[in-house]
Specification:
Structural class: little secondary structure
Number of domains: 1
Helix content: 10-25%
Order of helices and strands: HHEEEEEEEEEEH
CATH architecture: Alpha-Beta Horseshoe
Distance between the termini: 107 Å
Shape: elongated
Number of helices: 3
CATH topology: Leucine-rich repeat, LRR (right-handed beta-alpha superhelix)
Oligomer: single chain
Mean pLDDT: 87
Number of strands: 10
Strand content: 5-15%
């Protein structure tokens, strides 16, 4: 009932209605966090921009499609959640928040990300899942401290080659895209710990045994003919995942040499000819 009332009130652009949706939020919270999630907001409350010491701002699950330029006053902001809204483009003011560490943009209508995103050099976690992305924005490769990238449920077919320059990246989530080949660039990223390519169209997996940092690979729901080979101790989730990982290459080499050095078995005796009466 409460959500229904909020949904109706959200269409009435009066100050009284806005105050009802915001509750008692009139001054800077002591915990430096403002959570306005699921308030049916259609416009951002400008007076929040006066909370200049704000560290966390949650605007998830509203009806927002823009943010005011005044947002740039929140220069201490470290976490910003804009997921489950109606953004078709990232508001420019977001790219001015240079202390951001975590940015949630999932479940919007984004088709690209602006070049100005590269200004967020403290960003460590980026969620862009469930948007309208047909390619991974190249600007992401400029986020040198990025550790976690969630890009699932888009329409990605390829990854940019420059992605390998993100040497701090540890987890990449690509489930629910349109990948037909395992992204080659990931084979050159030995520092990755988690690779998720679940629910794509990958038919063949190359060996991942050389990725020394890998701990988990999720490849389920692909039309693959093989399981990716991994080093000992790496967990796999998908078809044939219970099979033994790729053996130690040194042991495999010794085994081949042993087979080569083993004496050949004696030839079987020739069959005796039939006797003549």
């Amino acid at each position: 009932m409460g959500n229904t009332i909020r949904a109706l009130i959200a269409f009435v652009p009066t100050n009284d209605c806005q105050n009802y949706l915001l509750g008692d939020l009139q001054e800077m919270p002591l915990d430096k966090m403002v959570d306005l999630s699921s308030r049916q907001l259609r416009r951002f409350p400008l007076h929040v921009c006066s909370f200049k010491e704000l560290v966390k701002l949650y605007l998830s699950d509203n009806n927002l499609n823009s943010l005011p330029p005044e947002l740039e006053q929140l220069q201490n902001l470290q976490i910003l959640a804009l997921d489950f809204n109606n953004f078709k483009a990232l508001p420019p003011a977001v790219c001015t928040l240079k202390q951001l560490c975590i940015l949630y943009l999932g479940n919007n209508k984004l088709r690209d990300l602006p070049l100005e995103l590269s200004l967020l050099q403290n960003l460590k976690t980026l969620w862009i899942e469930n948007n309208y992305l047909t390619q991974l924005p190249e600007v992401i490769c400029d986020l040198s401290l990025l550790k976690t990238l969630h890009a699932g449920s888009n329409a990605l077919r390829l990854l940019p080659r420059r992605l390998s320059s993100l040497q701090e990246l540890r987890t990449i989530w690509l489930s629910g895209n349109l990948l037909t080949d395992f992204p080659t660039v990931l084979l050159h990223m030995p520092f990755l710990e988690v690779i998720d390519v679940d629910r794509n169209n990958i038919s063949y997996f190359p060996s991942l045994a050389h990725l020394s940092g890998l701990k988990l690979v999720i490849y389920d729901h692909n039309p693959c003919r093989n399981a990716p080979k991994v080093a000992k101790g790496v967990r796999r989730v998908g078809r044939w995942s219970e099979e033994t990982p790729e053996p130690d290459p040194r042991k495999a080499r010794r085994l081949r040499m042993a087979k080569q050095e083993a004496p050949a078995p004696p030839a079987p005796p020739l069959p005796t000819s039939e006797k003549v009466d």
